[in-house]
Amino acid sequence: MEPKLGFHELLHVFSFLEARDLLCAAQVDKVWNEVSGTKELWRQLCLRRWSSCKTSQMTLGTQTWKEYYLCRSELEFRMECGRPEKDFICKAIAGHTGEIDELAYISTKECRFDGQEKSMVCTVSSDSTVRAWDVQEGTEIWSSPLQPAALVNVVTFPRLQLAITVDERGLIKVWGAENGWEQASFRLPTFSSALQACEHPEGPFLLVACAEGFLYALTVPQLQLRSRTRVFPSSPTSLLCSPDCQWVFASTQNSDLGPKVFHTRSLLCLVEDEPPVSATLPIWLTSRACWAPDETARLMVTHRNDNGTQLVITTYELRTKQSREGVDVVVQQMASFLLPNSMIPPHLMKGHGSQVILLVSGSELALFTIHGVQLAAFQDHQRPITSMWVDQSRVITASFDLSLRVYVWNKETKPPVLKSCYHLLGGSHRWARGFTHVEGDSMSIVGVEARNIGTSVLRSYCFQVQRGSDDCIS
After folding, report:
1. Is 237 a residue whose pLDDT tops 60?
2. Inside any domain, residue 300
3. What phi, psi does 159 have (nearest 5°)?
4. Gene3D superfamilies, per this entry (predicted)?
5. In this structure, what CATH number is given to the domain that contains residue 59?
6. Domain membership of residue 47 as a residue range
7. CA distance 385 to 143
8. Using an 8 Å Cβ cutoff, are 20 and 473 in contact?
């Protein structure tokens, strides 16, 4: 009779198996069933499959790692299939009497399958209100009182459960996400051209650019002024924070003024009579930019070449260096390439991983590496794309053709391959002009559907998980 392997020997052997193999092993006998369900085996499978799945970034609740793996695998399967009613439920959510100008998720974007998962979004509208919505239920949670002017932008701090809005006159307000109570306000001298929520290691703060070319850093939630810096004289400024909020990119479109990068810590701890730590990039006529989400300080910028005839995408790495005079910003060019002459100038730009750039030109979505290799081009929409949302698993585009297109990353290839999966349809063309915005989290997708009568509704698509069906494990 052959000797049997003990618990620890089996555990070592099982550590080389994939999820489906472990599920099969569990059917052999009682010992194999016990070993194949060991917490550490399934925790390692989660960490290998989802790099963001770290204990500090997720909440297991009452779940085991095995249950989490099965549920999340099923969720990804359903998001890739996109079968109405079977994989997701669609709801139209109405309430605003004007057009929705912006939306943002209030709920954290972590995956939870312990019965406590809930998706919430916040919207601002020309009807001068900010509102919060339960995406799964399709109901309004709260609405603010009528504000003095139309609200034009909103950002959120999910960890703090705060929403921050700005109106067309430059009045900024902080709202409690759970109850809609106003907590603080700050008035700019002119309207705001950009708003960025920053979760900095030294504490959360808000970056605001105003039309006269100043950059404001405000504490959250008090909205106390930390610094005020002139960036571009009398020019509306765009802002873009790096993934770790250590850097902020500031630019003004199609200007001879080169864009700037600021080290955000210097904006929070400004020394009197000393400017913040910054550098001007050696480019001009900037149009779009994005950060590489898997890198701490990799910036990709679309701009014109030296004679202004062609569009170029240049990639930079940023770091700080201590000198006798203080701290300097070191800007290193990593790559640069010309966009094809036949390509319409892109109006949307996002990064994926550390090497991939997504560009939207008209109704086309194109993917390039930072070295200019074109990976794919999709023309799934009949009318121009208005919005794009990108995360580690999916890409979603919104269009005036009244549809959302869902794409899924195949991360097993290098660089990753994007697969076009399915359309999510809006309402009737008789009543609607198309989708103007799209956002998503781990469990849902929300689009803003503009109506012909000057109003907007939310259209939510919530994906259903049957608590980890084994059939979804491949």
Report:
1. yes
2. no
3. -65, -35
4. 1.20.1280.50, YVTN repeat-like/Quinoprotein amine dehydrogenase
5. 1.20.1280.50
6. 10-78
7. 30
8. yes
